[in-house]
Each structure stands twice: as C-alpha cells, then as structure tokens.
Amino acid sequence: MLPAAATGLPPDWNYEATVAEVEAIVAQIEGGELELADLFDRFELAVNRLRQCEAFLDAKQKQVDLLIETL
C-alpha cells in the first residue's frame, strides 16, 4: 500500500469524506445564497479537494497496475 506521503495527502485524509465535502460545496454554490467572494472561495476549495481525489485515485491506479504486473 502506498504511504500517504506518496500521494501528498495527510495521513487522516479520506476519499469518501472529501467527495461529500465537494458535494456540499456544490450544493451551496447551486443554492445561490453565497456572496460573490464566498462563492469563489468555495469554488477554489472544491477544485483543491477534487485535485486531492484525483491524486488519490491516480496513486491507487498505479498501485493496482503494479500488482497486476507482478501476477
């Protein structure tokens, strides 16, 4: 298993919790109740969280590829 440092994520990072956070942010944005500055801050946070998810999935894909190669 890849250590958290290999993905650049904190050791307590959780994929499902991060996806739920992004979904909550999207709901806030779609709700139309945010001030413009807050909207951009929330959007930036969502993008950062999605990048974390992408890094996690990429690292796991590499791990699976390596396991398949060793079979």
From TrEMBL:
One of its GO terms (molecular function) is exodeoxyribonuclease VII activity. Keywords: Cytoplasm, Exonuclease, Hydrolase, Nuclease. GO terms for cellular component: exodeoxyribonuclease VII complex. The keyword Hydrolase applies. One of its GO terms (biological process) is DNA catabolic process. Signal peptide: none annotated. Its EC number is 3.1.11.6. Gene3D superfamilies: Exonuclease VII, small subunit. Belongs to the XseB family. This is Exodeoxyribonuclease VII small subunit.
